[in-house]
Amino acid sequence: APGHSRVVKDRRFAELKDVDIAHFRQILGDKGVVVDSDELKVANTDWMNKYEGHSQLLLRPRTTQQVSEILQYCYAGRLAVVPQGGNTGLVGGSVPVFDEVILNLGAMNKILNFDEASGILVCEAGCILESLDNYVGSRGYVMPLDLGAKGSCQIGGNVSTNAGGLRLLRYGSLHGNVLGLEVVLADGTVLDLLGTLRKDNTGYDLKQLFIGGEGTLGVVTKVSIITPPKLASTNVAFLACEDYVSCQKTFAQAKLQLGEILSAFEFLDRYALDVVLKHLDGTRDPLPDSKQHFYLLVETTGSNQLHDKEKLDAFLESAIEQGLITDGAVAQDISQAASFWKVREGVAEAMGKGGAVYKYDLSIPLKDLYTLVEDMRSRLKDSATVVGYGHMGDGNLHLNIMAPKYDNELLAQIEPYVYEWTAAAKGSISAEHGLGFMKAKAIHYSKSTAAVQVMEGFKKLLDPRGILNPYKVLPSPSESHVIS
Ligand code: FAD
Ligand code: 2HG
Ligand code: ZN
């Protein structure tokens, strides 16, 4: 797979032996120890079919105690470990690079407590995001995050990647919504940070290190998270704009005119829309008569349908009057709203159907956000399809480049150009997907040497033997072995 030749195996790690497997059977029983080659193939391969490890062992613990015993053993014997949730990550972080033991949290999927007065949920890390949303949904709340992978991603994976997604504009990031965590450190120590308090300023806020830690600092086993109330009124509009400047102005107007009810502001370009309509069964063009270059999905969520509708109508009317949007459709019912959302949420999946896709998840100041897409398109000409979409309301561009197959010549046209461009624009080379394996070596484009050194210090403190998710996030200590 592409990229793998760039790093060589860290020789400090031990090879897996039969006695190790026997020991894990003692801890987990037969069911929790998977050596079946078909199951291993799935767990070794990432969602994009871009990264593939060759681990010989998949472990499925059911309790924190078991996670602790597994890590204690791995730490003592220097066996490297990849924590894995739903394996929907998009930066090669959730699969082994070589033969690391895969520690999948999926069997730890119990809801532990839900406080119906405060909306605070405490659950195990392996709970699927969509199941949690359904659970709190039937009790009058919603999860503060939502993403296209909700049917498979796990809350522990969401926390570990600090996933952003479709509701961040409204509810903010997991750094604010996660109230507590239980984490098992590399040596098996159980760190109980599972508070359920909105406010707690007693010393350093350690849980923040594991939010976005990508499994390199500890294994998240339990999560406490605040969920906002589910409000009565939701509206979804799908709008067409002639150019990117109009999208920006529409966003500024949406903030002004929709104010507190604005709950999502997403965008996709014509190329993205076309890929969705072509490759995803059951998707319909929300604006079949419009052939514009840019599309916006605007959602409002509030407590009063009349009030919200009035605001939305006024906003749309003025946007048309000012020439910011050329067309628009407001979903008339829940199923139409879902079909609009499917167009936006389906881009990632649709892009995967065309062969190979290079994904760049970037924060870029709003005014320059689309310039990169245009620059890349003229740079690559006919060799690839360049698509831009993303969480415009959060300044987050998803630049996807689709080609018939992974190709090193094409890659050399894209990288490091895309990282240099982003750094020059004072953006971030990872807005929400993390660094994983893909971008570990590119961290310097977004973080100073001093900042990376402090990160390395945390890594050494929490995992002195480096067994947790090696080769990910930080440039490997075996950097000198990089073959290029
Ligand atoms: P995995 O992919 O299994 O793991 C991701 C990383 O977290 C790995 O480094 C892994 O080692 C680590 N990890 C997993 N579980 C644990 C644990 N319990 N303890 C410690 N480390 C752990 N991301 C966004 O931010 N916003 C989006 O809108 C979004 N949309 C997506 C849409 C699609 C269709 C797909 C396929 C992905 C999308 N993603 C998005 C990326 C991905 O879904 C998220 O990053 C998600 O949070 C990963 O969760 P997971 O359970 O699949 O984790
Ligand atoms: C999205 O917002 C996801 O759709 C996936 O973050 C982005 O695949 C991508 O590049
Ligand atoms: Zn995204």
Automatic annotation (TrEMBL):
Domain (FAD-binding PCMH-type): give its ranges. Answer: 51-230
Q: Which GO terms describe its molecular function?
A: (R)-2-hydroxyglutarate dehydrogenase activity; FAD binding
Q: Catalytic activity annotated for this protein?
A: (R)-2-hydroxyglutarate + A = 2-oxoglutarate + AH2
Broad class of enzyme this protein falls into? oxidoreductase
Q: Which cofactor does it need?
A: FAD
Q: Which UniProt keywords apply?
A: FAD, Flavoprotein, Oxidoreductase
> Does this entry carry the keyword Oxidoreductase?
yes
Keyword Flavoprotein tagged: yes
- Cite the EC number: 1.1.99.39
Name one cellular component (GO) term.
mitochondrion
Record's superkingdom? Eukaryota
Q: Which family does it belong to?
A: Belongs to the FAD-binding oxidoreductase/transferase type 4 family.
Q: What is this protein called?
A: D-2-hydroxyglutarate dehydrogenase
